Structure formats: structure tokens, C-alpha cells
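Continuing the series of single-chain predictions for the mutant panel. This is the parent chain; the variants come on the following pages.
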Amino acid sequence: MKKIWISLAAMAFVASASYADNKKEVERVENSGTVITEILNIPDNIPQDLLDKAECVVVLPSVVKFAIGIGGSYGRGVMTCRSGEKFNGPWGAPTMIALEGGSFGLQLGGQATDFVLLLMNSRSAEGVLTSKVKLGADAAAAAGPKGRDASAETDATLRAEILSYSRSRGLFAGISLEGSTLRPDNDANMHLYGKDIPAKDIVLKGVVPAPPCARQLLATLNKRSPKNKSN
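Parent structure:
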């Protein structure tokens, strides 16, 4: 009997340690689901035709400015893509993503800001999933237009591989993130999924199922944009 209790205690300790190890990542994924749901419920939100043509979406909740220096920001969030080789399936398991560098001026207003990025083609998606991508240099980036009647057929949106939006103090707007970088957050992926898996394998190969904490994120995107209309 004593051995049984010791075994149960050991199992409880391992489970507790595992939860503590990925608690930040779980909260980050859950917060990303809340952010995308709230933003897509704003009257003048991301134009539907742009969302329908996006291959992937990056959500970065509560990005903050560096305390020292002029500009520069640091944020962690998630990236999810439509599943399948041609990005034509349901939105799939997310990978953890890091945003670093860049100067967003006074648009951050000294407060935490939520960012949503639309990745409009497979080149930008594969680039972010495999290496550090500098926006504006490695991938063409632009502030996304907003509003239900906004046209996606502008020069900026036609040329851009990544369109970016921000929300701070209740204000939602397109914002340029040129000069900042996006990269896979491999350490966070290890914590979230419990093993070392390349971001590309998580998103493009579907080697792991989506964790329960991603339920709201994926449900919202699958409801609001169930089909890829880029072709």
C-alpha cells in the first residue's frame, strides 16, 4: 500500500511539474484565442476578403515596448495555418512565435498592444516557420487596411506578403512592423507540446494535434474563414 501511495505521489508531482513548465505557453495560446475573437467582432475589423485569402495568421497578445532605448518591442504569441499542402484545410495546431526589434513609435502609447498578422502566401509562411524573418527585408510587409468595405485590391495589399494590425487602448488599426523580426519560439514549443518538434512540422505536417488551449483560437478562425479563397 505504501508503494502505491509513493507511486501516486510521484505521478502527481510529475503532472504538477509539467503543468508549471508550460503554464505560460498555455496562457499565451488562450490569450491569442481571446484576442482574435475580440478583434474579429469589432465592426471595422480585418476585411473578410483578406482573411479569406490568408494562408496563416499570427496573433501576438500584449506586446510591450522595451523599457530602455528608443523604440523596440518584444512579444510572444502563436501562428496557425490552414492545413494541407495547399493550405486549403481547416486551421491547424499552432506554433509559438516570437516578435522582436523594430520601433513602433507612439502607436504603442506606452501600453501593451495586441498584434494580428496575416501571412498571404506560402513563401512568407515557410520563411517564418524555418528561420528569422525581417519584415520589410526578407518579406514584404504593410499596414493592413481595415473595415468591412475596405478593398484588398490596393497596391500595398497586392504587393505585401504580410499584413499587420494592432489594437491598443481599444483602438484598432493597421500598423507597419517593418524592421522587426518574426521567428519560431522553439523553447516555448517544447514546453507546450512536451517534446522538441520543428515549427514547420507542427504547422505544415500536422505531426501533433492542437492542444486544448487552442480551442477558441481555431474555432474562431474556422468559423469566420473556413475556406481559403486565395486561388
